[in-house]
UniProtKB/TrEMBL annotation:
Top-level taxon: Eukaryota
Name of the protein: Peroxidase
Biological source species: Riccia sorocarpa
Reaction it catalyzes: 2 a phenolic donor + H2O2 = 2 a phenolic radical donor + 2 H2O
Disulfide links within the chain: C33-C112, C66-C71, C118-C316, C197-C224
Length: 322
């Protein structure tokens, strides 16, 4: 395609995305489901109280949904004959607690039938996950609609791989409309949750990645004692041993000590494009919260379905019957 033809096309795509985001609003359900946010807040806390890891799953599922084909709840769809879902992508290994989004959606449906999308429920539950773990309140615009399908190959291609280099990571953020500082802030979500050994052992065996503090590497080897793992392995190491269930800036302090788990974690504190932001967030938890909230706002408005696009699913794991 000639450059003269390509530029108008790109401008049209950008304009479409901006228009879609503009159709979202903070009071979208003011008349149709005014109790929505309180319902999601209450149920999310109940699930967190019963299953503490629901909070971390909610945050991670928000990230992985928006990072692949936009914030459309496609990550929640099960596979069907002829459709292998995003859940099956290696880039979504370790994702879990999908079933609880149907629990939250069930309460929403009882109050407001056929009104609220799973995509909006997912965004709000992710926001509540951050709050339940002590993080900042994040204003979330609403009005998304749900995808009709989910494709493993999209997640394979669009989500960042565990061993991606910093240029790839920053390019991915740029595609999502997120600049470097906000990208570093988003990765602060690694302060909670855990890293499965299968995503870690290549940095420990046969030799330790020099970017990892050697004493810490020895601890990680206790958690992951073999270079051989499998898809069902439950071995893991918590990302933050100091405040494992606290959403705070300690992640950045750990990076400065050489205690990052994934390659991207270690690279953040070493790459000249990102290391100053790591130091700034490590020094100021409030500033981290501000930039993280700003980044989530940008992310959750990326490439959404609105108006008559997609559908409003009754059950989050399956599209509505035709």
């Amino acid at each position: 395609m000639a450059r003269a033809q390509l530029v108008p096309l790109l401008l049209a795509i950008v304009s479409f995305h901006k228009l879609a985001a503009a159709e979202l609003s903070y009071d979208f359900y003011k008349d149709s489901c005014p109790q929505l946010e309180e319902i999601v807040k209450k149920k999310s806390y109940e699930l967190y109280d019963l299953h503490g890891n629901f909070a971390t799953s909610s945050i991670r599922n928000l990230f992985h949904d928006c990072g692949c084909s936009g914030c459309d709840a496609s990550v929640l769809l099960d596979s069907l004959p002829g459709m292998i879902s995003e859940k099956k992508s290696d880039n979504n290994f370790g994702q879990r607690n999908y079933k609880y989004f149907d629990v939250v959606k069930g309460d929403v449906e009882a109050a407001c039938p056929d009104t609220v999308s799973c995509a909006d429920v997912l965004m709000l539950a992710g926001r509540e996950g951050v709050i339940n773990l002590g993080g900042p309140y994040i204003p979330i615009k609403l009005g998304r609609r749900d995808a009709l399908f989910s494709r493993k190959e999209d997640a394979d291609m669009e989500l960042v791989k565990k061993d991606a280099d910093m240029s790839t990571v920053l390019d991915t953020f740029s595609r999502l409309g997120i600049d470097t500082e906000h990208g570093v802030a988003l990765l602060g979500a690694h302060t909670i949750g855990r890293t499965h050994c299968r995503n870690l052992v290549q940095r420990l065996y046969p030799i330790v990645d020099p970017a990892i503090n050697l004493e810490y590497a020895n601890y990680l080897k206790l958690r992951c004692p073999s270079a051989v793992t499998n898809d069902t392995s439950v071995q893991y190491s918590r990302n933050d041993r100091d405040t494992p269930m606290g959403f705070d800036n300690n992640y950045y302090n750990l990076l400065l000590q050489g205690k990052g788990h994934l390659k991207v974690d270690s690279d953040l504190s070493l790459d000249p494009r990102t290391k100053d932001y790591v130091a700034k967030f490590a020094q100021d938890n409030g500033y981290f919260y501000t930039k993280f909230a700003e980044a989530v706002k940008i992310l959750t408005e990326y490439k959404v379905l609105t108006g008559t696009e997609g559908e409003i699913r009754k059950v989050c794991r399956v599209a509505n019957p035709k």
